[in-house]
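Run Sugar transporter through structure prediction, thanks.
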Amino acid sequence: MRTHSRWTPWIYLAPALVLLGGLLLYPVYQLGLISFLEYTQAQVSGGRPTSFQGFGNYAALFRDGQFREVLLTTVLFAAACVLATLATGCALAVLLTRVRALPRLALMTAALGAWATPAVTGSTVWLFLFDPDFGPVDKLLTRLGMSGFDGYSWTYDRYSAFALVLLEVVWCSFPFVMVTVYAGIRAVPAEVLEAAALDGASQWRIWRAVTAPMLRPILVVVTLQSVIWDFKVFTQIYVMTNGGGIAGQNLTLNVYAYQKAFASSQYSLGSAIGVVMLLILLAVTLAYLRLLRSQGEEI
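Sure, done. The structure for Sugar transporter is below.
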């Protein structure tokens, strides 16, 4: 009976595990395999035989100055997106607990609408809002006396383009954080918050010393999800900067891998970039979880 009860959960999980194995493990295996081969358009068309390169593709990547620059850019951009998303989502989650039912419903509806909007649609809308000729943002800033924004192209400059993409990424990502953290806050016993308020703690002090520690498991989930999503941003960069910006100034690793694999037909290099991204995300996730365990947190 004990053996039966031990294996029962795995029996129920088996169909899902088989499906995930087919959808995830096999593509990862193929990605890793191609990254060790010489696999270009010549091999795809059958004009040249496929040859084993070992770690040659990885060595070529790390010798490439552009790859190192794009890697650093991706890390910094993802970090900024994660911090902005978490700050916005947590702040609005706290706001939801302070407003009445009707404003709360309006904010939740607007946020879920942003969350449900496809990335291509959202990126196109944000491009229109900041369009130098017809966008309302430039017109509004100009009317406020900022004449430098008259006909200003936000996607021409590298940093303003990244800022514009960051705003769109945060706009479509913060609802997940907001809803999740709001649900966690509602589960915090009201007596605990009332006791902290009676002791004279400010709202920021209550959040930092009481609410946030109790929400630690939820914050772990939303942080890891945000890191994974923002590190592999593709659609927003590709659509809003027209494939990576002028001379590739707004490239991130996902777009760079796409260019290598499909624009240059260097499928092995594109696969190697994908493997590097996978290893980085895996390392960040494991390091973060290990740090929490070392601090005595239950995951």
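The beta strands are 37-38, 51-52.
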